[in-house]
Amino acid sequence: MKTKDFDYALPEDLIAYEPLQDRTASRLLCLNPDDGVTAHKQFSDILGLVNAGDVLVFNNSKVIPARLHGHRDTGGRAHILIERVLEPFKAVAHVKTGNVAKAGSIIYLSDRTPCRVLGRDGPFFILQPEGDKNWYEIMEDIGDIPLPPYIERQTKPLDSSRYQTVYAADDKAASVAAPTAGLHFTDDLLDQLRAKGVKTAFVTLHVGAGTFQPLRTLDDEDPRDHQMHSEYIEVPQDVCDTVNAAKRAGGRIIAVGTTSVRCIETAWNREEGGLQPFTGETDIFIAPGYEFGCMDALITNFHFPRTTLLMLVSALAGRENMLRAYEQAIAEKYRFFSYGDAMYIAKGCTDGT
To answer: Does residue 73 form part of some domain?
Structure first.
């Protein structure tokens, strides 16, 4: 396995820089992992593709307004992306300035709040605001929704709602990127799925900026040598009960997004064959050759080339099947990435089409 095996060429005009007005209006490319057969549908067709007794597993983490602006005490501009709030007055963040911000230096945020650089933690800076407002209050007052770095435009009012799932929980606000496969769901669609007998379960993974990072390996190197970034997850008992009951009854576990996959595969007990509660960090790296324990099918968006996310979906569908499906998506002019169209990877999903 080599890093270059997970590369593909994408015309720039297929990158979705804006969301559709209607969440369910996205297109849906169905892929049968057994034979690589595909079918082209609309996302609203998912209602007919899942069955009573199946479980849809969602990531309910909420995106925080983590992008901040300011200037250094030396006068230069500073761009800050909060990666994780460690304590109300301490956070780790990406900081972009003309020169490296040194420990002890001050960054003045756009509301003039002084923020002290306490030191480094690998690629991150440890920051502490000096004043009455903590990080949560600062982000609420002056923060922007952190659109993906390839969307090089100012945030718009629509982004505050559309770059957020309809089921994001207020008490799970800590992500700096949306679990984008869930952006296609509406409250009405969820109600219709439940009325059909489809179960829903909610796990939590707080998405970090590392989700956009390409593999840190050369073309001819094994991408599994890449150091996976760690993210905080929660798999509660009620989710385990729902999933395990469905498994016993013959229902499928359908993950909505790669973040949900990482949660349930981390918490899956392979020895006992069941999902167990889990709270903590995961750095699980899912690549071709991985044997899924919990997940049976996946709803996902299209992913960047040379990323761990493309490797994860390739582990489910096979690298060749996945890259051929991407070629078809490009030929059919699907919209790519966070605000783009979706895929449904499931056995039998193309039967009768």
So the answer is: yes
CA 227 → CA 183, 280, 304, distances in Å? 28, 18, 18
- Does 248 share its domain with 120? no
Residue-number span of the structural domain to which 212 is assigned: 3-63+162-345
User: Could you tell me the end-to-end alpha-carbon distance of the chain, in angstroms, rounded to an integer?
Assistant: 33
Q: Are residues 185 and 264 in the same domain?
A: yes
Given pLDDT bands bounded at 50, 70 and 90, which one contains residue 112?
A: very high
**Could you give the dihedral angle defined by the CA atoms of residues 259, 260, 261 and 264, in that order, rounded to the nearest 10 degrees?**
130
pLDDT tens figures, 239-254: 999 999 999 999 999 9
pLDDT band at 314 (very low <50, low <70, confident <90, very high): very high
Percent of the chain at pLDDT exceeding 70? 99
Q: How many distinct structural domains can be found in the chain? A: 2
Tell me the pTM.
0.95
Same domain for 190 and 116: no
CATH code of the domain in which 106 resides? 2.40.10
Q: For residue 182, how many C-alpha atoms fall within 13 Å in the half-sphere facing its CB?
A: 34
- Residues 23, 91: one domain? no
Same domain, 189 and 302: yes
Pairwise CA distance, residues 38 & 328, whole Å: 9
b/e code 299-316 from CB counts within 10 Å (16+ = b): bbbbbbbbbbbbbbbbbb
Q: Of the residues 111, 142, 173, which one is the last residue of a structural domain?
A: 142
DSSP string, 16-42: --S--SSGGGSEEEEE-TTT--EEEEE
Sheet architecture: strand order including 199-205? 38-42, 27-31, 342-345, 297-301, 253-256, 55-59, 199-205, 231-235, 278-282
